[in-house]
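task queued by scheduler; priority normal; single chain, no ligands, no partner chains; default sampling; output format set to structure tokens
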Amino acid sequence: MKWLLLVFAGWSTLVGGLFLATLSGDVAVQLFSLEKNSKLLIQGLVMSGLVVPIILYWYQRVYRMTGVTPKTPVYSWKRFYHFFTGVLLAIGLASLGFIIAISQGWIVFEKWHTPDQWIIALLINVFIAFLYEALPEELALRGMVYDVLRNRFVAWQAVLFQTLLFVAAPIAVTQIQVLVGLDPGNAINMPYIILMFCFGICLQLLRLWTGSLWTGIGFHLAYLEITRFVIWPDIYGVPPIITYQGGLGIGGLFISLGMIVIGSIIVSLIILVAKRYMRKSGQFNHIHPKKIVE
């Protein structure tokens, strides 16, 4: 049952890190009356400071269990170039979504805002989101937990189980917060669960066809910044990159969920099927003609 214990260890590390990070932020605000960004920075530092080294430790146990130590792990800096693969994919799908939404009249574009109005806020948010969300979540779930599950199950089952654990993580943290008397950090409802489920599958598939966790990290960050600075900027109280009408209706949902998340799932599946077909074709072409006859 080592594999089951390792799955629980990875998942509970993420859940514990999330809870302690939010608790640290709340305590820091009460003690020092910090602003929102300072609170979020503390949460990000605590989150990555706890989760990343512990998961890397558990990863060594995974390698011993499987008996395979890769020369270039999925989290290696040598695979960092795939970070830009994820960023560009998210931006490209979002841009296509805006073009379609404008052409269909779901949103009405008004104007662009110059970078000096939002660039500093965006860069700060990218740094915090990297520490608090993208890096620890991708390393723990799409990395270690998936590798353990993949050692026991076929790929689609491992993707499904990892995604269910991804959805369960914020639910568990919210329940712990309620039990200890803290305000819940997330409003858990069906739309949120559907989004998290689709997002989890999306991020795992990105790792599968690139072989790098950095793809998911880049995509994760790009998605967060697009939603926070373009699609629903008023929700986060930050200056928008563009102003348009109709963003809170079908247009915003179509771009965020339909084009970016579902679109990336479709793109990933097409690439995975194409790569599998090419591998099979290559294997067939390398078969000696005499063996074919036999």
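post-processing summary
- The first strand starts at residue 108 and ends at 112.
- Confidence is low (pLDDT under 50) at residues 287-294.
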